[in-house]
Amino acid sequence: MSDTQVLFVPYRGGKPTKKSAGQISQQKHAAREYHRKAKLKRQSQKPKQPPPDTRRSESVTSDSHTTASKDDASASSSTELSCSLSPSTRNSSPVSVLGAGRVDPFDSRPVKDLTPYAHQMADYALTYQWPIFKFVNPNLTYQDMKTHIGHRLRVSQTSFYTTIFAAATHFALSRVGGEAPHPISMLRLEYKDRALRMMMADIKSTGQNMPDEMMHAIFALASYSSAERILPMPSRDLKNPLATSFDLDVYSRTPVEQAHIRALFQLLKQRGGLRTVQRPGFATVVGLYVSGLSKYCARADIQQI
Question: Where is this region: Disordered (predicted)?
Fold first, then answer.
C-alpha cells in the first residue's frame, strides 16, 4: 500500500482588508454608472411630443408634405388615400406612422374615381372636424358622430359634395402660418360648385318634402361659403384656453353666408318650422342663426318657425 501525501494550508480568517473593500466599492460604482447611462439612452430614444399650441400646425404641415409626395408617386392612380392627419405624424412612433385614429389607416377601402385629396378630406371630416361637436347632443359618443357623418357622405351627392367642401375649408382655416396646398384649394372650388348645382336640382325635385340631410347641407354652405378669402392664422399663441376650445379660433373668423341662411329660413317656414327637424341639437343651432335675421325678415315670420 502506497503512502498518501497530504498538504496542509493554514487558514487565516479575519475582517476584509481595505483593498478588498475598495474592489467591492468599484463594482457598485460601475453597476450604478451602467444603469444610469442605460436610463439616459432610453429617454433619448423616446419621441418628443410637440407643445399643445403647435401640435395642429405641425400635423397639417406634415400632412400636406406627405400627401404631395404620395400624390406625385402615384399620379396614375386615383384610389390611394393620403397620409394620416394625426397630430403626431412627425414622431417616430410606429403607432403614429400607421395612422392611429384614422377611419381607414391602411388605405384599404378607397372609392373609385376620387382623388387622394377627396379621400383625405373625407377622413378629416370623420375623425376631427365634426366629432368634436358631440356636446350639442350629450347622449351621443364620438363613434355616433362618425356614424352620422358617414351617413351624410353616403345619403346623396349633394350631402357628399357639401361635406367634402366644408372639410376642405375647415382644413385650410385651421392651418397656422401658411396656406393650404393648391390641390386642396382647387378641391374647395370644385366641390362647392358641384354642391350648389346638386342642391338646386334637389330643391326643385323635393319641394316642401325636403329631408333633414338637405337642411344640413344648406347650413354647411352657410357656415363655410364666405371663408374663401380668409387668410390662415399667423400663430395660435392665445393666452385664453377657451379661445381654441371646439375650434372657436376658426369659427370666430368665419362670416356666415346670409343668402344661405335666408334660404334655409324660407324652406323651414314652408316645411312647418324647427319642430319638424328630427335632431334637437341641429334645430337649436339653426334657431340661433335664424334669430339674427330680424333685419331681413319680419319678426312674426321668425316666430312662426
Answer: 1-105
Rounded Cα gap, residues 174 and 176, in angstroms: 7
Q: What are the residues facing 102 on neighbouring strands?
A: none
Residue 302, pLDDT > 50, answer no
Q: How far apart are CA 17 and CA 106, in angstroms?
A: 67
Place of cell 372639410: 167
Asked, for residue 128, whether it belongs to a domain, the answer is: yes
Determine the structural domain holding residue 263 and report its residue range. Answer: 258-305
The mean pLDDT of 217-232, rounded to a whole number, is 85
Burial 18-28 (b: 16+ CB within 10 A, else e): eeeeeeeeeee
| Percent of the residues in the chain that have a pLDDT greater than 90, as a whole number | 10
Examine the domain organization and report whether 181 and 262 are in the same domain. Answer: no
Residue 44 lies in a domain: no
> In sequence order, which residues have a C-beta less than 8 Å from that of residue 102 and are 6 or more positions away?
84, 85, 86, 123, 127
Q: Flag the least confident range among 25-34, 42-51, 61-70, 242-251.
A: 61-70
Residue 145: inside a domain, yes or no? Answer: yes
43 in helix, strand or coil?
helix
C-alpha dist (Å) from residue 48 to 55, 89, 92, 254: 12, 12, 9, 34
Q: Is residue 36 part of a domain?
A: no
* Cell numbers found for residue 165: 367642401
DSSP designation for 272: T
